[in-house]
Amino acid sequence: MTKSNERKLTIARSMAEAVAQEMRVDPSVFVMGEDIGPLGGVYGNTRGLIEEFGAERIRDTPISETAFIGAAVGAAQDGMRPVVELMFVDFFGVCFDAIYNLMAKNIYFSGGNLKVPMVLMTSTGGGYSDGGQHSQCVYGTFAHLPGMKVVAPSNAYDAKGLMTAAMRDDSPVVYMYHKGLQGMGWLGTEAGATVHVPEESYTVEIGKAKVVRQGKDVTIVSLGMGVHNALKAAKTLEGQGVSAEVVDLVSLVPLDRETIRASVAKTGRLIVVDEDYMSYGVSGEIIASVTEHDISVLKAAPKRVAFPDVPIPFARVMEQYCLPNPDKIVAAWDEMKAA
Amino acid sequence: MAARKTTPKPNVSSEELTQFYRDMLLIRRFEEKAGQLYGMGLIGGFCHLYIGQEAVVVGLEAAAEDGDKRITSYRDHGHMLACGMDPNGVMAELTGREGGYSKGKGGSMHMFSKEKHFYGGHGIVGAQVPLGAGLAFSDKYRDNGRVTFTYFGDGAANQGQVYETFNMAALWKLPVVFVIENNQYAMGTAQQRSTSTPDLHTRGEAFGIPGEVVDGMDVLAVKVAGKTAVGHCRAGKGPYILEIKTYRYRGHSMSDPAKYRTREEVQKMREERDPIEHVRIMLIEGKHASEDDLKAIDKEIKAVVNASAEFAKESPEPALEELWTDIYAEAT
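Output (structure tokens, whole complex):
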């Protein structure tokens, strides 16, 4: 069913394309990280760049996350536009100071004297038995801390446009891409993430959510991989005569609360799907966005399908038990209806 | 330490020596005034004074060229004054006022001036060191011949990120001078109680970074070492380490009564090694300036500092609307 004018790309390829197109027109853009050069990025998102731009602009680093993320902050403060990769978001533990105390705060601390135009791209998510230090999302951790924008694409179209927007932004943007959407064969991948991507450069607005499926009975809000689970659940529900609307957050910061509220005002019911830990996180924030604003729109108590509050286990059976999936979303609807 | 020698170095002009005196005295008087304002309750938080260390920044600024960059920790007032930032803006930031460099949102530890190539002012021990390498990377990338002075203390020298940065800066031959201001105390912990080997200038050996130790109470020695260091960097040879032995007369911050050292130790440094007195004696003995000349400078500096204090008191408190600006870069 591929149309002749369609140009399907994986998220990995669309990210690399966005970076390449921007690097061609803006000499202040450079890429830095572990194995983003000849190896092409563990998740393929810098593949081909070193061949075109060379080792000066596509810069492999030592395994020294604090040093190179801090260096990116310094370079950005001096007007460069670094795109930096933190290979797994789980590694933020060794370098978070450079991120949340420096990258995120120096515009504010300088009273606007400085800009920090940098992109921190980082892989998230599990589902492939990589253990609890290589499978987390920690969306809420990043989104909680002020001063940095946070985006998480669910498909290759948004991935390219968000990357271009992030590189052109004068503020730091954390770009969280889900490993299971990258189109890497060895990981297993979500086919729905590989979509038509225009060849020319374009932006997707940071801070704007998208209604990716119209419905009238329940709103399912998610991001990244969760959007695909939500769409699959919506299809199942459709077979049961239930019309589900799916909202793709696209950005966590700024959060498009208006689009969420408008959708829930229409459907009266809300399920939030989040691969990050359940408590103190994105799912609670989404629900609060609705209930603080106008609780009267709700016909039922909201539901969450999120990762339980345990470290991510290795054993496949245990990890899969914990991860959100379409069946759990359908079950959440069933509970909501029964209540 | 040995008693000070007062023989003037032959290669310094009267003008330059006088300028050193003026620049160091500005920092000293500014910091004394900041201490007073703190005591009056006009400055909140902690406030880290630079008194005693003035020769370090003044000597290195004399080795810098236009466009060179500097970045430091939270003991930053001296660095800002030495690179030509406006004392009014610095003092008003200390008092958290609208006229401060960061509009009251940064405070003592967080000020910046792109115009003067001053990149902060950072509150986490050692965290500015990777940023300094990044500034140097930016210069190298643009091939503009500029050098970055990245200052940190003997305490920060025990932070892991310093060594990540040493490796990266040496690997990429970044034009960065790592300036270790060794004032001998990491807050209240004397160097011998915190540091396995005392010679911090050798800390770059494992990475192939040359280093030297410098008498930080002698502004001329600092300038000479600074010239060597920037020459190394500008020649494309990569980073250079200067361990500058200095001494802070006050506590780590205004809240620190400095009970971890004796009054006599501080007194001895003040009497025998004071960097400003050192230059004053050179000026007088070398007949570069008369007592009256110096009195005139003292008076002038006092006026500048008093004006900054007045400005810092008179400048309005920030409007609360300001809270919501600069979270992200404003559209230009």
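The CA atoms of residues 116 and 224 of chain A lie 26 Å apart.
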